[in-house]
Design goal:
224 residues, alpha+beta, 4-stranded antiparallel beta sheet, 38% helix, 12% strand, globular
Length: 224
């Protein structure tokens, strides 16, 4: 592993990779809800399908009392080597959304079964917010049932009444300044999920980014 980069060096790489990814995926801002949903799903699939779980075995930690330094480090790791952790998944997904088509935040949740903490995203599509969970989606994607279900997305564009919330209880939003306390959830969270048929019809039109036939100029290359 190369020497630790400065925040300035990491930010330059983050900026470069962000432009490459958004250009490659053709993600553009739109005021139409359907276009926003399609772009969100495109970025969502890219995040959970392009993860590099092998990198997770030796993901370098950073020791800092400033949580903002840790956030930048995790974004850097996510955008260069995405190890597929809940932290890197949600930070990367939020970053790509915020720099292209939609407002997004990271939500802290608690498992109703184990009591353990979990992270997901909340994304503003149209006038309402919807939940996306790229980490749980990744675990489903890794399961053999993915191909049998023809790539059905299970954790995208969820409303407050979705069965997902039988598993998790939302606690609050991680603030932009990571050194501050959690913030309240947005008021305009959709009651109902987006149509599953619509979500998966759109998803079917988007490439499988994990496929060996899908090659990109932004394939993760680790520290530079």
């Amino acid at each position: 592993m190369n020497k630790e980069l400065t925040n300035f060096e990491k930010q330059n790489i983050i900026n470069e990779k962000t432009k490459q990814i958004l250009s490659l995926l053709g993600v553009k801002k739109s005021f139409r809800l359907l276009n926003q949903l399609a772009s969100a799903i495109k970025l969502y699939k890219f995040v959970f399908q392009k993860s590099n779980p092998n990198f997770a075995k030796y993901t370098p930690d950073i020791k800092s009392e400033d949580r903002n330094n840790i956030y930048i480090h995790n974004l850097y790791i996510g955008i260069t080597n995405n190890p597929g952790s809940a932290t890197t998944n949600t930070i990367l997904f939020k970053h790509l959304l915020m720099h292209s088509i939609a407002e997004s935040d990271i939500v802290l949740l608690k498992s109703k079964k184990s009591g353990m903490s979990h992270l997901a995203n909340i994304v503003k599509l149209g006038k309402e917010y919807y939940y996306f969970d790229p980490t749980l989606e990744r675990s489903i994607f890794d399961d053999d049932a993915w191909e049998e279900n023809k790539g059905t997305l299970c954790c995208a564009a969820l409303g407050k009444n979705d069965d997902y919330f039988k598993l998790y209880e939302p606690i609050g939003i991680l603030p932009d300044n990571m050194n501050l306390p959690l913030e309240a959830l947005p008021e305009k969270i959709a009651e109902e999920s987006m149509s599953k048929n619509l979500v998966n019809e759109i998803s079917a039109l988007i490439p499988n980014y994990a496929s060996s036939t899908y090659k990109t100029q932004t394939d993760y290359d680790g520290d530079r």
